[in-house]
């Protein structure tokens, strides 16, 4: 009986492999392998807790840098457009002042011509008002200063500066608008040149008239003095 039991235990039976396989499943069950792998992956992902945050931070910083560059370009363009608008306002203000100055000059030129006409009708110095006819005596120095400043300004602005390449590209881009502005500037320069020439000519003419007026007054006083002298001699002769 003992040998039969020993032989039965020694001989591999049909269920022996199944039993061993079953023991292997108990000792090393498959779900534990899967859990270990998952645990390993989880441990691998959790080994660097800041890796995902670092990548997200880098992406956010790159996007912020792109937005900053874009906003910088837009801000520069807006700033330049604002400067152009201010310069246009200055030109329009100057043009309005020049129109007012032209009207003022024409009015005073007409007054001067009227005074010249009346001056030709006077025969005695007593007909002249005290202080003379001139209403521009105190304004002549200011007029000369205005003419000088205007002439210097036109001579200075008549020399165009060399534009930078960036400005040249911008002018090329907005050429339709700049063409109209350039025409207005050229017209303004021409008006300023004509006004300066006209004022200079009139100033010289006024100076000449003042000299002629002084000479005429001197002649009138000399004539009156001779008349008084002749009258006194005639009275003494009668006496």
From TrEMBL:
Q: Which domain of life is it from?
A: Eukaryota
The entry's keywords: Coiled coil
Give the region (Disordered) as residue ranges: 34-68
UniProt KW Protein biosynthesis keyword: no
Composition skew (Basic residues), residue ranges: 56-68
Note the coiled coil stretches, chain numbering: 185-226
The record's InterPro entries line, in alphabetical order, gives:
SAPC2_1/2 (IPR026828)
Protein name, as recorded: Suppressor APC domain-containing protein 2
Q: Which organism is it from?
A: Manacus vitellinus (golden-collared manakin)
Q: What is the lineage of its organism?
A: Eukaryota, Metazoa, Chordata, Craniata, Vertebrata
């Amino acid at each position: 009986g003992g040998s039969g039991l020993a032989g039965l235990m020694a001989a591999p039976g049909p269920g022996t492999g199944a039993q061993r396989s079953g023991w292997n499943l108990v000792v090393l069950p498959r779900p534990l392998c899967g859990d270990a792998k998952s645990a390993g992956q989880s441990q691998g992902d959790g080994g660097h807790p800041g890796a995902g945050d670092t990548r997200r931070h880098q992406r956010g910083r790159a996007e912020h840098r792109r937005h900053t560059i874009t906003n910088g370009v837009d801000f520069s363009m807006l700033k330049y457009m604002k400067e152009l608008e201010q310069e246009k306002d200055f030109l329009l203000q100057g043009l309005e002042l020049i129109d007012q100055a032209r009207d003022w000059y024409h009015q005073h030129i007409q007054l001067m011509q009227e005074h010249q006409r009346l001056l030709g009708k006077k025969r005695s110095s007593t007909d002249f008002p005290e202080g003379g006819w001139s209403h521009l005596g105190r304004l002549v120095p200011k007029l000369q200063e205005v003419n000088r400043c205007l002439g210097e300004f036109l001579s200075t602005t008549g020399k165009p500066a060399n534009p930078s390449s960036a400005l040249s590209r911008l002018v090329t881009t907005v050429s339709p608008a700049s063409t109209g502005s350039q025409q207005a500037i050229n017209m303004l320069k021409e008006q300023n040149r004509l006004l300066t020439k006209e004022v200079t000519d009139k100033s010289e003419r006024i100076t000449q008239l003042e000299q002629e007026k002084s000479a005429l007054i001197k002649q009138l006083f000399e004539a009156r003095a001779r008349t008084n002298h002749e009258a006194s001699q005639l009275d003494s002769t009668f006496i």
